Amino acid sequence: MRLLMIDLDNTLVDRDAAFRDAVTEFVTAHALPAGEVAWLTGVDASGHAPREDVALAMTRRYGDGVPPDAVRRLLDTGAADRVVLEDPVRQALGRAEAARWAVVVVTNGRVAQQEKKIRRTGLAALVRGWVVSEGIGLRKPDPRIFQAAAETAGVPLKGAWMIGDSARADIAGAAAVGAVGVWVSGGRPWTETGYRPDHVTRDVVEAVDLALDTAG
Fold first, then answer.
1. Alpha carbon 91 to chain centroid distance?
2. Edge-to-edge strand ranges of the sheet holding 101-107
C-alpha cells in the first residue's frame, strides 16, 4: 500500500467558490456595495491570510456598520458551511482506494474549520485519515507534517505522492521529503524558479488518475 497525500482547500474542494458565496450573502445582508465582494475575497487571499488580519481589516473598513459576531461567523463558518465534494472527485478517491492507495488529507488551517469541511462533504468516509496543521502544531511545508500523514495512514513515507494547489506548501513540501509532487494548477502558470513540481495537472481528478497510472 502506498501513501497518497492530498491538500484540502482548492484541491479536493473549491474553498474559494464557497467563500465567495458566503461573502456575497454577507455583503447583501449588511447592505454593502457590491464591489465589497472583490475587496473581501482579495483580503482573504484564498484563505492564506491570517484570520486575525482579515478580521482587523474588516473592522477598520466597516466599523460599527457590521456587528463583530457577523465578521466572526463569516470567517469561521462561511466557507466550511458551503464547500461540496464534486462527484468526479469522490469517484477518483474511490479508484485510489480500490488500487490500494492510503489517502490522507494534509491541510493547513484550524481544526474546527477543516474537520467540518471533511465531515460535511463526506470525505471522512473516503480517506484513511487527515492531518490538520493546528492540531499538530506544524504547517506545510514543514517535513514533519508529511511524516505525520504517513504515521496516520500506517504506511511508509517513501514512495508517497503529494497533490496540492500551493507551490510552497505542497510542492516544496513534497520535495523536502522525497515525495512525488503534483501541482494542481487550475490553469495558472508556474512561477517559482527554485523548485518545480514533478507533474502538473489542471485538477485533482487528473492528478489522482496520474498517480494511479504512473505508479501502477
1. 18
2. 129-132, 101-107, 2-6, 161-164, 180-184, 199-201
DSSP string across 141-198: T-HHHHHHHHHHHTS-STT-EEEES-IIIIIIHHHHTTPEEEEE-TTPPP--SS---S
Cα(216)–Cα(51) distance, integer angstroms: 41
Classify 3 as helix, strand or coil.
Answer: strand
Q: Is residue 13 within 8 Å of 84, Cβ to Cβ? A: yes
Residue 102 Cα to chain centre, angstroms: 18
For the CA atoms of 19, 144, 148, 214, what is the dihedral angle to 10 degrees?
80
pTM summary value: 0.95
Grid coordinates given for 128: 484513511
The DSSP 8-state label assigned to residue 107 in this structure reads: E
CA-to-CA distance for 9 and 141, rounded, in angstroms? 15
Phi, psi of 139 (to 5 degrees): -120, 145
pLDDT digits (tens, 9 = 90+) for 114-165: 999 999 999 999 999 999 999 999 999 999 999 999 999 999 999 999 999 9
- pLDDT, the chain, mean: 96
